[in-house]
Amino acid sequence: MDSAGARIATDSTKVVGLVIGALLVALSVVMLVPVLAEIVARSNDWQAFLSSAVVTGFVGGALMLANQTEERDLTHRATFIVTSLGWLSVSAFSALPFAFSEVDMNYTDAFFEAMSGITTTGSTVMTGLDRTPPGILLWRSLIQWIGGVGIILTAVAILPFLRVGGMQLFRTESSDRSEKVLPRPGQIAVAIGEVYLLLTLLCALAYILGGMTAFDALNHAMSTISTGGYSTHDASFGYFSNPFIHWASIIFMISGALPLALYVQTLRGTGETLWNDQQVKGFIAMLVGVSVVMALWLAARGDYGFFEALTLTTFNVTSVVTTTGFASTDYTLWGPFAIMAFFILTFLGGCTGSTSGGLKMFRLQILALLFKSQVRQTLYPHVAQTMRYADRTVNREIVFSVALFVFVFMGSILVAALAIAAFGVDFVTAISSSAQAFANVGPGLGPIVGPAGNFASLPDGPKLILSFAMLLGRLELLTILVMFSKDYWER
């Protein structure tokens, strides 16, 4: 490596350290919010958050001081590192309040809980939530809320340029400013943050109108819009009997699973609107269709009237597809058909540019276009086939990227499930917990990790595997996996 290359590498390393340090300093400030909640509730757990804030702020500040540099531009390679290490570092330090608090977690459980929160997965190892100190409950909701807006900004600003899983389809070229939401990335971030905050406040207000306490409403609003799924009660939404609350949650879970940049465009009257977007229309149509079919099937069994069945199926289908992970009932008791249906729904996900995980609707639509094109090519081999998505030409690079992502996504689930099964975990628990982790859904299937259970009884090994799987799924897999290749480290 020549001297110029060494200097660039050093500058990039310093920028990575500077960015991660700034993230940790910001996280330490957020840790002070539960301190206030604990003081108001006259709980002694405020010391856990204060000590966590001091440790996190000290490490973050030290990183910033040690990595001062005038060069602030990230190279293409450094972008992968800062994205991966940034999310990993924030998760690692977000675990400290759980480890220091009176809930008495070991660090493995604390890291699992924090990673699940930051990635908005919603899997939990905690029980007795109804008796848990308010600071810890608020912290769980806060890290999900932060992770939700964080992945939106990552998806909008970084992933399209990394050509991850077909996301480059949503990149607006610099030569065409007419489709940009706003001309500068900073303005886009602020506008998306404002929409995110507005949706959260509206959701909290709806929950209060439905009869929730202000504390429950705030926590569940942050978990709903972030499509995270942490609740303040062990029974999740089964704790609330008012159908109004359930339907309000359905509306706002869907709101969080739609592209937030489109909200900005719709409100500003520039570019494509929410109701004209091809991905949004496909997503809504799929939710409605699946919910109604399952409601008819559930009502036909004679267990529920149609409206009650529709409320139950729409809530739980929306929760799983948007990867929120709330549960209003144990739907695995509905029989084999429901279990298989919810397992399939685990993979789907919401829209790109939203807080939800999974495969994403646009990738499913691209695969459908590919299938349709191949059928036509078989029938008319001498006719050139052009695929178009939302008035944009879908080239071979995008199709290949989507197909590769789906292959890696499914393959990763199987590899992780095999690794989990090596610890003696049964098949249903291993495969469903792996699938929900990569899709960032929350509940799996079966009596252990299903909607009525949690992940506390799993050995530490599977918990660490699932933690890594959550991060892989949240960052679209290839963002992290590319760093394991030999070519990445060659200069």
Could you please describe the fold and organization of this structure?
Helix 8 packs across helix 9, helix 10 packs parallel to helix 13 and helix 16 packs antiparallel against helix 19. 64% of the residues lie in helices and 1% in strands. The N terminus is likely disordered. The termini are close together. It is mostly helical. Strands 1-2 form a two-stranded antiparallel sheet.
In short:
The protein is 64% helix and 1% strand. It is mostly helical and 491 residues long.
State the main characteristics:
491 residues; mainly alpha; two-stranded antiparallel ribbon; 21 helices; globular
Outline the secondary-structure elements.
Blueprint lengths: L2 H28 L1 H9 L5 H21 L9 H19 L1 H5 L6 H12 L15 H24 L27 H25 L4 H12 L17 H14 L3 H9 L9 H23 L5 H16 L14 H10 L15 H19 L8 E2 L2 E2 L2 H26 L5 H13 L6 H4 L10 H15 L3 H4 L4 H4 L2
Antiparallel strand pairs: 1-2
Helix pairs in contact: 1-3, 1-4, 2-3, 2-7, 4-6, 6-7, 6-19, 7-8, 7-9, 8-9, 8-10, 8-11, 10-13, 12-13, 15-16, 16-17, 16-19, 17-19
